[in-house]
Amino acid sequence: MYTVSTMHVVVSKKDLQRILSRCQNVADKKSTMPVLGNVLIETEGDQLKLAATDLYLAVSGTIPAKIEKPGSIAVGARDLFERGRNMPEGELSLITAESSAMTIRAMGSARRYTLHGLPGEEFPSLPAADAGATELKLPTDVLNTLISATHFSISNDETRLHLSSALFEWEGESVRMVTTDGHRLSKIECRVPGRDANASMLIPNKGIQELRKLCDEAMSDAKGDDKPELSMTQSGQNAFFHMAGFQFSVKLVDAQFPPYQQVIPEAAAQAVRAPRSAVAEALKAVKVAASDRTGGVKLTIAGDKMRFESESPESGDGFDEVPVDYQGPELTIGFNANYFLDVLGAIADEDVLVAVSGELDPAVIKPGTESSDSSYLAVIMPMRI
After folding, report:
1. Phi then psi for 140, rounded to 5 degrees?
2. Is the distance from CB of 318 to CB of 285 less than 8 angstroms?
3. Distance CA 256, CA 214 (A)
4. pLDDT for the residue 292
5. What is the pTM of this model?
6. How many angstroms separate the CA atoms of 369 and 350, rounded?
7. Which of 30, 269, 295, 315 is the most buried (most CB within 10 A)?
8. In sequence order, which residues have a C-beta less than 8 Å from that of residue 222 and are 6 or more positions away?
9. How far apart are CA 190 and CA 375, in angstroms?
10. CB of 51 within 8 A of CB of 40?
11. What is the set of domains in the chain, with CATH numbers?
12. Is 303 exposed, middle or buried (0-12, 13-18, 19+ CB in 10 A)?
């Protein structure tokens, strides 16, 4: 029978809420194992460590604390976060009792909550990298760029593991991320001069979403011209990331990613240069009148115009056009408007290049200017309108 050592610590509300916001995203309240809905709280030297896992993802971090008495307990991650949010700013006192309960009290205030929990010893062990595993260093903004440019084309169908994940590859001085849901594909490659390495991993969608949040947090916390770095380690079935004061681990997908190079057309018969923001605005306007079921929009390139048309059997139709740079014959293709908009949102250039061959061929979208530091393209499969 487990017992809970009485624990008494004092921490900053700001520090506690920051780490709880990450833990509650990973904790799994819907699991058949109730302990997975909890956050582990334990003293570690002169710090307080918090951790959460759903057995596939795990996140942990430490915060400064005044340790009156060491100990550990596991309590509901969401419950503690909500109660902490309703505490006044300043220091909070966390006290556990032998009855597996924890009291959270605001210093200098009468406000307090009591949470029922579990002994810390009942919390699952977190994965750890092998001692000899290679640690790689990568600028956080590079990983953020990779994810931002590709995350939207990961499949939401978790039964198709090879599609509900992102392929991360590191070859020499180049890092690459590729995603596809079977209807579209996104691929970006960035140079990291002086960081020669080799790695390949298939990261599940939930892991990608959490990494994106951690990257955003690390970059927002950076001061001045500081460029934060992250360390990453591939060990066994897991990948480990250290950034923004957190350790994050994810169980990698054991599946074969589609041969994406075969999906990317080697050449297209026609190419059009178009203003990115104007195309995005036209698409947003026209898709309002598109069918709710398909979101299909018809694109016609003729002369120096790119026309967008949509039609809904229930509500009518929509039309808009944008001036473009095009020299070829008239060409019409149908596609999902949201797929196109996702790509336009991932590109920062003023212009985009759209390469097409025919109404039944995929469209390739690239930034209007080439960069020596990165290359990006997206492939959108056509649809019959």
Report:
1. -60, -35
2. yes
3. 27
4. 74
5. 0.91
6. 9
7. 295
8. 228
9. 7
10. yes
11. 8-122 (3.10.150.10), 135-260 (3.10.150.10), 264-380 (3.10.150.10)
12. exposed
